[in-house]
Structures are given as C-alpha cells and as structure tokens.
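[recover] target loaded
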C-alpha cells in the first residue's frame, strides 16, 4: 500500500508539472513574458486577450502550407526520415523515435519538409501532435508542413499550435466532420497573434528552456515510477511463491 501511495504521488507530480508548462505556454503565446503587460480583447473567443502591441491576423497571412506530394519509394526519398503522427509525443512536440521511409515500407505520397518546418498532424487534432522537422525529411500525408512568413517565426508558430488556445479551435472545427480532421479551409480562417520578431524569439527561447526542464524532471519521475512498479511486482511474486512471508 505504501508503494501504491508513492506511485500515486509521483504520477500526480508529473501531471502537475505538465499542467504548469501548458499554463505558461498559454500565457506567453498570447501576452508575452511580462506578466504585467497591458492586454486588449483579440475579438476571437478561443484566443481571448492578447498583448496590446501585438498584431492579429488570419493564419494564411502568416503561414504557408506545403502542397504537392512525392513518392517515398523513389531512391532520392526512400532513405529520408519519414515523420508520422505516431513518432510525436502528444502535447509536447517531442519526437519519440525516427524511421526512414524505407524502414516503414512507405509506398504512398508524402510531403517534403525542410529542416525547421513545423509539422502538424491534421488527423485527430485532440491528440495535439506538432513538431519541428529535425532535418530535411518527409512527413505523412496525415500531416501538414507549415512555414511562417510575413514576420512569423516557425518556433513561435510551433508553440502557438501546441497551445490550448489552438487546440480548442482545431478540436471544435474537426468535430464538424465524421473523421476528426483539421482541413486547409479550417486553417485558413483560423487566427494567430503576432508579437514583434524580437519578442517571438525571446518567447521561443524561454519555452525551449522550460520544456527541457519539464522533460528532465518528468523523465526522472517516470523512471522512479517504473522502478517502484517493478519492485511491487517482485514483492507480489515473492509472496505468491512463498519466498517472502506476508506479515
């Protein structure tokens, strides 16, 4: 029982730390790093208030969406990394593992991505899977490669897409079709706040550092939970087999 209690405490700590990151993410992608900054109504319900000096515009004013697919079976593509939704951790943007198109036996059209592009999963958006291309690569046709322009950096775009603000919008839009999916039409009418370039970079650096700290702490806690679970399993085994007496 003491082991179960300790496991529950550590799992609660993981949940609390991840919630803290998401709350800070929400805060800084709409208002910046200064908690005392003056805000104004954005006029968009799912975004809420934004910093007074920030701009707000339609998604297609700041983001280009990749189009035109390539054949991953072709020699020039088949040794390239192919990123699909299952390679991305929900809600963090972390790439869990990498595989080439050849290793995945890919044989249908994929999007070509440049290093630094934002890759967003349009299928089942509630899973909140978005990442940054680690190199020139391919991505699944279930995803979109995004590239910011007109004053929008890809890193700020990445964090905005990861935020609860955009998650609420994409889930609401996807629920209007049989298969939950964020399509180009929904994206084109979405809004995005735009801080000055220097502020975008500062926000991205802050969130990069915070995300690394959160990942490090939660990784340690998860490892501790697994050790405790293994220990509990071994105790149960010893009790069942008579190697340990139950007091």
């Amino acid at each position: 029982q003491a082991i179960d209690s300790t496991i529950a405490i550590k799992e609660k700590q993981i949940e609390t730390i991840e919630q803290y990151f998401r709350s800070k993410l929400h805060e800084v992608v709409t208002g910046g790093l200064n908690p005392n900054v003056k805000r104004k109504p954005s006029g968009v319900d799912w975004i809420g208030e934004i910093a007074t000096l920030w701009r707000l515009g339609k998604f297609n004013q700041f983001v280009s969406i990749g189009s035109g697919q390539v054949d991953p079976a072709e020699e020039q593509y088949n040794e390239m990394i192919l990123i699909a939704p299952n390679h991305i951790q929900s809600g963090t943007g972390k790439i869990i593992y990498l595989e080439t198109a050849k290793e995945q036996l890919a044989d249908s059209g994929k999007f070509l991505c440049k290093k630094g592009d934002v890759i967003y999963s349009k299928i089942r958006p509630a899973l909140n899977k978005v990442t940054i291309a680690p190199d020139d690569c391919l991505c699944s046709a279930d995803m979109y490669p995004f590239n910011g322009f007109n004053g929008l950096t890809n890193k700020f775009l990445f964090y905005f897409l990861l935020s609860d603000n955009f998650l609420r919008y994409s889930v609401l839009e996807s629920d209007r079709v049989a298969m939950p999916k964020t399509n180009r039409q929904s994206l084109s009418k979405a809004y995005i706040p735009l801080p000055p370039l220097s502020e975008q970079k500062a926000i991205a650096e802050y969130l990069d550092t915070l995300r690394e700290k959160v990942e490090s702490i939660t990784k340690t806690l998860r490892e501790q939970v697994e050790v405790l679970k293994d220990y509990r399993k071994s105790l149960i085994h010893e009790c069942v087999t008579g190697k340990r007496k139950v007091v």
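[recover] notes: The helical segments are 2-31, 59-62, 75-78, 154-162, 164-174, 184-188, 197-240.
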